[in-house]
């Protein structure tokens, strides 16, 4: 697994504060990306398959992994969570939220399971020409972790065209949209639903965040989604 990116808290916090997302360059190698894409036809590795058009989610499909997760996905989840837990707790303090996230993923998942959320949420997404993902939030129960990671597994301009990763922010004071450019193996950290931003008169306020993928014009696009809360 690639280790060139340093999970340095100040850098991540600064990027999330300034842009609402943080890039994790070269998180996976090309070979690791291809290995994950090759899992998609292996139905026994997944607990469910979702066809987006049947639910009004867009066009395309995705599959949720079953436990135990593939080793690559489990390592990513375990490696990234402790760093993001510190940021999540910082966000809670900014928003005067009393909840706190434990330092280990296993501790947080125990909380999920006590809340009746026991199904894994890491997933593989597959887009073909004409497919897209509507703007949405990945909430699967009462308990959620406020940050998640998407990793592009395909090569833009080679494996596919179009299919840009998009983020939108909405509050009573402003609306904002941004396209986040990714290369194969790059990850992006972004909010699941809300994030704190500085208020115009001091303090912090909440903004709603949604994410999606624009229409793929040609080729096939695959993404790994690393979500930290389990589902009900």
TrEMBL record:
Belongs to the iron/ascorbate-dependent oxidoreductase family. Residues 118-231 form the Fe2OG dioxygenase domain. PROSITE patterns: FE2OG_OXY. It comes from Pseudomonas putida. It holds the Pfam family Oxygenase-NA. This is Proline hydroxylase. It comes from the Bacteria. Keywords: Iron, Metal-binding, Oxidoreductase.
């Amino acid at each position: 697994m690639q280790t060139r990116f340093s999970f340095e808290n100040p850098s991540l916090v600064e990027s999330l504060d300034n842009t609402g997302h943080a890039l994790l360059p070269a998180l996976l190698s090309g070979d690791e990306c291809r290995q994950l894409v090759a899992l998609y036809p292996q139905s026994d590795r997944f607990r469910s398959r979702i066809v987006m058009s049947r639910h009004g989610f867009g066009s395309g499909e995705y599959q949720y992994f079953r436990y135990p997760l593939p080793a690559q996905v489990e390592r990513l989840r375990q490696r990234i969570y402790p760093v993001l837990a510190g940021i999540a707790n910082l966000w809670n303090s900014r928003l005067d939220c009393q909840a706190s996230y434990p330092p280990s993923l296993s501790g947080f998942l125990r909380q999920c399971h006590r809340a009746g959320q026991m199904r894994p949420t890491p997933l593989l997404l597959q887009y073909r020409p004409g497919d897209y993902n509507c703007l949405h939030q990945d909430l699967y129960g009462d308990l959620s972790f406020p940050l998640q990671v998407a990793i592009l597994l395909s090569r833009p301009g080679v494996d596919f065209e179009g299919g840009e990763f998009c983020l939108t922010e909405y509050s009573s004071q402003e609306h904002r949209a941004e396209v986040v450019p990714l290369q194969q193996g790059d990850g992006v950290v972004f909010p699941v639903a809300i994030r704190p931003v500085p208020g115009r008169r001091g303090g912090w306020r909440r903004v709603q965040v949604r994410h999606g993928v624009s229409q793929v014009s040609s080729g096939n696009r695959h993404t790994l989604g690393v979500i930290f809360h389990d589902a009900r």
